[in-house]
Write a structure and sequence with these properties.
3 strands, DNA binding, 3 domains, IS3 family transposase, 47% helix, mainly alpha, transposase activity, elongated, HTH-like_dom, 3-stranded antiparallel β-sheet
Length: 291
C-alpha cells in the first residue's frame, strides 16, 4: 500500500494563490504542479469557505523538497517529450494553438504554451473564438479527405485524391509544399493539422546527386511521373522503417497510372535483390491474371 502524500501549509497556500493569479482551472494548475485535481479543488474550496484545516499540512521540509524536485523533474520530462514530438516553433501562432488544442489532454496547457512560446491567455481566447468561414471550410475538407482515405483503405495518394476532390466540386491545390496558412497560394489539400508532427522539410530533401541518374544509365522517364494508361510505367522506391528490433527496409513497385502499390518486398538489408524480388512479385501476379 503506497504512503499517502502530505503537503506543507506553504505549498497549499502557493497552489491556491497560483489558481487565483493565473485564472486557469484547478485541473490545469493541478497537472502543472503535480497534485490530484480533486485535492487542489478541495483546498481552494476550503480556503474560500474560511476552513483553516486546509493549511494544517504535516509534511516535513525534507518531504516537501523531495516532492518539489519530483514535480520539477516531471515538468522537465513532459517539456522534453512534447518538444520531441515535432518542431512547430517555425509555424504561425494559429498552428501552435492547434497543436496545444490537440494535446491538451496529454500535457498541461501552460507547459505547452511555454514550450511553444505563446501566451496562455491568447490560447484560451483563440479557443473561445468562433471559427471563421475559412476554418469551417477547411475542417469540412479535412474530414472529406479522411473519408476518401479510409474508403480506399489508404491505397490512393495525393494526386488521385486531388482528382476525386475536383470531381466533387472542391477547389483545392495538389501542391504539398505550400506557403504559410492564410496566403492565397496555401494548399488546402496539405491538411496542416495532419502534418504538424511530421519531419521537417529539410530532412525530406533528397541529396542533389540523387536527382541525376548514375553514369551510363539513361533517364527513361525524364522526370515525367504520370502515365496515360496502366502497365506502361512502373517505378520502385525503398523506405527505411525503424522497429523495436532494428531497421527494416521496404521496397515497393508503383504503377504511375493508378498510383497503386502493385508489388513489394522487405528485408533487413538494402540491396538490389530486394528490388528484384518486388518486381518479380508484380510479374508473378500478372502471369496469374493473364496480363
Amino acid at each position: 500500500m503506497s504512503k499517502r502524500k502530505r503537503y506543507s501549509p506553504e505549498f497549499k497556500r502557493e497552489a491556491i494563490e497560483l489558481v487565483r493569479r493565473s485564472g486557469a482551472s484547478c485541473r490545469q494548475v493541478a497537472l502543472e504542479i503535480g497534485v490530484a485535481p480533486d485535492l487542489l479543488t478541495r483546498w481552494v474550496r476550503e480556503a474560500q469557505s474560511g476552513v483553516e484545516k486546509a493549511f494544517l499540512g504535516t509534511g516535513s521540509p525534507r518531504d516537501e523538497e523531495l516532492a518539489r524536485l519530483k514535480r520539477e523533474l516531471a515538468r522537465v520530462l513532459r517539456s522534453v517529450i512534447f518538444k520531441r514530438r515535432g518542431s512547430v516553433l517555425c509555424q504561425g501562432v494559429i498552428e501552435r494553438h492547434t497543436v496545444i488544442q490537440r494535446c491538451r489532454n496529454e500535457y498541461p496547457v501552460r507547459l505547452m504554451c511555454r514550450c511553444l512560446k505563446v501566451s496562455a491567455n491568447g490560447y484560451y481566447a483563440w479557443q473561445d473564438r468562433a471559427p471563421s468561414p475559412r476554418a469551417r471550410a477547411n475542417a469540412r475538407l479535412v474530414k472529406r479527405i479522411r473519408e476518401i482515405h479510409e474508403h480506399s483503405r489508404g491505397m490512393i495518394g495525393a494526386p488521385r485524391m486531388h482528382e476525386d476532390l475536383l470531381d466533387e466540386g472542391e477547389t483545392v491545390s495538389p501542391e504539398p509544399r505550400c506557403p504559410p496558412e492564410g496566403s492565397r497560394a496555401h494548399s488546402r489539400l496539405a491538411a496542416p493539422e495532419e502534418v504538424c508532427f511530421g519531419r521537417s522539410a529539410s530532412s525530406l530533401q533528397p541529396p542533389a546527386s540523387s536527382l541525376q541518374p548514375p553514369a551510363g544509365v539513361s533517364n527513361l522517364l525524364e522526370r515525367v511521373f504520370t502515365a496515360l494508361e496502366p502497365e506502361r510505367k512502373w517505378v520502385t522506391d525503398i523506405t527505411e522503417i525503424s522497429t523495436l528490433e532494428g531497421k527494416l527496409f521496404l521496397c515497393v513497385v508503383l504503377d504511375l497510372y493508378s498510383k497503386l502499390v502493385i508489388g513489394w518486398s522487405m528485408h533487413h538489408r538494402q540491396d538490389r535483390q530486394m528490388v528484384i524480388r518486388a518486381v518479380e512479385m508484380v510479374i508473378w501476379q500478372r502471369r496469374g491474371t493473364g496480363r
